[in-house]
Known about the structure:
Layout: H1 3-11, E1 24-29, E2 34-38, H2 44-47, E3 56-61, E4 67-74, E5 88-97, E6 108-115, E7 121-126, E8 130-134, E9 142-143, E10 149-157, H3 164-177, E11 182-183, E12 189-190, H4 193-203, E13 205-206, E14 209-210, E15 219-228, H5 229-232, E16 238-247
Antiparallel strand pairs: 1-16, 2-3, 3-4, 4-15, 5-6, 5-16, 6-7, 7-8, 9-10, 10-15, 11-12, 13-14
Amino acid sequence: MSNALGRLITAFNPSKIGVLRTMLAATLVLFNASSPAADHGDSPLVRADPAADFGDVLAWMSPDASKLYLLASVVRNATADSRFSDAVQYVFHTRSSASFGATEADPVNVICTFEGADEQTISCWAGDESYVSGNADDPSGLSSDDGKIRVFAGLRNDAFYFNSKGFNATRTAVRDAAPSLSFDAAGCPTLDTATSNALVGLLTSTDGGPAQDAFGNANILVLALEVDKSIVTTGGPIVAVWGSTRVRP
């Protein structure tokens, strides 16, 4: 696996890493750029099928812009017994164009499915060009015969960071203070320096001490792919990426 994807998989290691309910779209200029989208802590309806709901979708280029890296996560608070769903397709949608805002070429989808309840087998297609199938839980990745796609799928620490206690304390303080605040023409509160500093202090602390990550001890299932740029740039060097899950046909 290339150094960039390998570093990411290492960072998401077990000791520390529908259609999507809200479409997650990101546009990448094909140099060293990245764009994340996140969705954690959903409603009960979404939580009922956690293996079919993306928590994060990330896309970025390799340093030499020859590879596109795609990553999605599912199953918040995953355990060693958690599995990807065998009832859905995990899809990274891509569309490319010659310049920003220009007419886009036909979409190229990267689609992955899983089989099995214990040791799972993954199958991934990158457009009509490349295919890989096998056990992808080795952090070094599983490569297609043509070398154009490589995939890892497995348990990692949830790298999403959120100081939920600090956020909730700030929200409560703002709600309680709202009746005494003045608002500008746009409806935004005007804050003096002391109030602003107090709110920043709440956001950056937990119960008066250092900020604590609510996801720090939580694991998640990660699907990560390395895709040769040539597969997704049929229409030009500007590539839009978004993710979805859908019921298998």
